[in-house]
Design brief:
single chain; mainly beta; six-stranded antiparallel beta sheet; 19 strands
Length: about 300
């Protein structure tokens, strides 16, 4: 995967804006031996190029309010309720298809988000939709999924995103991004759950999200991102060009660089040697997913990376 990568830089994407982060790096040599971790460093991102999450009640904390059930059953469950699982975040999570009562082979619920604020940019073909969420099931059989439906002024479906889903026994993130079609007036965020085994429909979702981006430059070919839990790919492989120019398309800038106090990562002190400066990893930050960009104008100091 990294045969043609000199490992001197990396683009870190999908970060929240105006948020503190810690980071550390390590290398693996030709013998597949890992170096110790570098000393952790801290930084804070700036403004994000994406909107806030446009979904209401994205984590079932308000029951099933703001969601319309179009087939089967939708439940908002607490940890262990009806022998279910624990939420990914907060006190509740969605069970699409039914766990406590009225279980169905297939469940579906959706929420409509109006695009009035972005209509001019939609008509110009400049709006990109980023969506995702945390998904899991009970035993690896049932399948939770999400999808976007783009709707025109008369309620007809103009286009649909790919369907993102998985079968996993741990909370796993899925995400993707695509252009909003010209003529769209609204977008439906659809949650789905399919029962493949047992009596319950163990299709669980939490912290689903829909965020919009107004694109100010042409995306590169093949720029769509798809990050699912079905394989090991992160969907974030894009070396870009880390040289020259300030970022002009809305990436987060880095500020407040310093020690990673309180991050819970202990530095390693068992290094046998250090990489030369020319090979030290630098950090390039974006709050968007899979978008080619120039580096932010301020970057954290590159931690020295010890070798085995």
């Amino acid at each position: 995967l990294q045969a043609a990568d000199d490992l001197s830089d990396a683009v870190v994407e999908g970060l929240e804006g105006n948020s503190p982060y810690c980071w550390r790096v390590r290398y693996r040599d030709r013998g597949l031996r890992w170096s110790p971790w570098s000393v952790p460093a801290g930084f804070t991102t700036g403004d994000s190029a994406l909107s806030a999450n446009l979904l209401l009640n994205p984590g079932a904390e308000q029951g099933i309010e703001h969601w319309t059930v179009t087939e089967g059953v939708l439940e908002s469950l607490t940890s262990g309720e009806c022998d279910g699982r624990e939420p990914y975040d907060g006190d509740r999570y969605f069970a699409v298809g039914g766990l406590c009562e009225g279980e169905s082979d297939y469940g579906e619920a959706r929420q409509t988000v109006q695009l009035k604020e972005w209509l001019a940019d939609v008509q110009a073909g400049r709006v990109r939709a980023h969506f995702g969420g945390m998904l899991r099931d009970w035993g690896g059989d049932d399948r939770p999924e999400i999808r976007l439906d783009f709707v025109d002024a008369v309620g007809s479906t103009l286009d649909q995103s790919e369907t993102l889903g998985l079968q996993a026994t741990e909370w796993t993130e899925v995400s993707s991004a695509l252009d909003v079609p010209v003529g769209a007036q609204a977008v439906d965020f659809v949650m789905m759950g399919t029962r493949n085994a047992g009596d319950d429909n163990d299709s669980y979702l939490d912290e689903v999200r829909l965020r919009l981006e107004v694109v100010t430059e042409e995306p590169s070919a093949g720029d769509d991102d798809d990050t699912t839990g079905d394989d090991d790919a992160t969907g974030n492989e894009d070396d870009g060009d880390p040289s020259g120019g300030e970022a002009t398309d809305g990436p987060a800038l880095v500020s407040g660089v310093g020690d990673c106090a309180g991050c819970g990562i202990a530095p390693r002190a068992d290094a046998l040697g250090w990489l030369p400066t020319s090979l030290v990893v630098g950090l390039w930050v974006s709050t968007r997913r899979r978008r080619r960009l120039r580096p932010a104008s301020v970057v954290p100091p590159s931690p020295r990376v010890p070798l085995q």
